[in-house]
User: Fold this.
Amino acid sequence: MNNNLFLDVHVIQTLPPSNINRDDTGSPKTAQYGGVRRARVSSQSWKRAIREYFKKNSEANNIGIRSLDIVRYVAEQIQKFDESIDTDEAIKMANEILNKAGVKTKDNKAKALFFLGKSQAVGLAKAAIEGNTDKKELQEILKSNPAIDIALFGRMVADDPFLNEDASCQVAHAISTHAVQTEFDFFTASDDLAPEDNAGAGMLGTIEFNSSTVYRYANIALHELINQLGEKEATINTAKLFVEAFANSLPTGKVNTFGNQTLPKFILVTLRDDRPVNLVTAYEEPVYSTKGYVKESIDRLLSEYRSAQKFVNEPIAKLFVTGEDILEETEFEELNTSKELIERLGNELEKILPEK
Assistant:
């Protein structure tokens, strides 16, 4: 395998009236790009949705938890090893082993949110029962066998940088391919027990929203991921799961209000041996249309891909699936479904990635 191997994922997805990612005032997040205001969904918001997808759809994988309540989490693993240990003693042991490993706790909670894999929690629990107090060995437990979401999205520990984990994945803020305007939904709610002579509303208010066709992008440095996970099969399965989750996940802000349960209209996956390439520059000049934005956004993306190829190496693989009719001939391999695309990606990685 070449020294570098990057997986790029590009998605075009349309969102109806919605507010899936709000700022501190409750307004949909936006960004200025290309001289106009765009709808924006932060990378943090979509990464959270991806991690939730992992938890619900991948019980077989080592998925991490990010919480202040890691003392209780490790204590539960201690009690699974030895049921004779009561809860108070397990909590005490968990506090001690975490502090000895360099994770500061107070009042039976971490001082800051901590990202911990289940296998790491089990390792610490075993060390606590065995009476292991060697800081170096305990930190190696926290560094080894990382959960797949820790490997992908990284971990920062201000108190002890040794416990930091570099992210092998980058997720861009999704932005609309066109200009948007924030709109307001004025609503009222009636009081079911109000007297008949009271015609007023029991409650009234406004909710801000917009609608958009967004470009979404992420990449994985697979050469880093395989070093983190230590296994070829685990790396392939993680890459496949990530693409699946990236395509199917959706931040849940105000979803009960708007029911904005849409799916991508276009997914493009490439494998590159030189560098990742974000194609958002396709929309620096915003799309203008009165007949919808999806087809024009896809056409722009394909055109920008060809333009970018003047500066980078030819991808090792380039796969796509779409629900739209693409009339022009493309240089990509088209798959019929996202499931087929993910399986095809796995086959390519099986040929390219080295055994570990």
In short: DSSP finds eleven helices and 14 strands in the chain. The mean pLDDT is 93. The radius of gyration is 24 Å.
